[in-house]
Amino acid sequence: MSDRETYVPGSANMAQVRKDGETWTLVLVKHLRHPPEKVWRALTEPAHLREWAPFDASGISATPER
Description:
Layout: E1 16-20, E2 23-27, H1 36-44, H2 46-52
Antiparallel strand pairs: 1-2
Helix pairs in contact: 1-2
């Protein structure tokens, strides 16, 4: 996204919030049509993440589930 000022988040109605002691985890489950390897790169590689994320990030801590 080139213009982050106009970002409008979509619904997160399937989101889960988990708390374990002082650690909070936000769980979002999305079914995507892209191959898992491509999605994983988009989520974990900073160069790919910057292309779509509406925030500045160096990476996301994520665990894939198949």
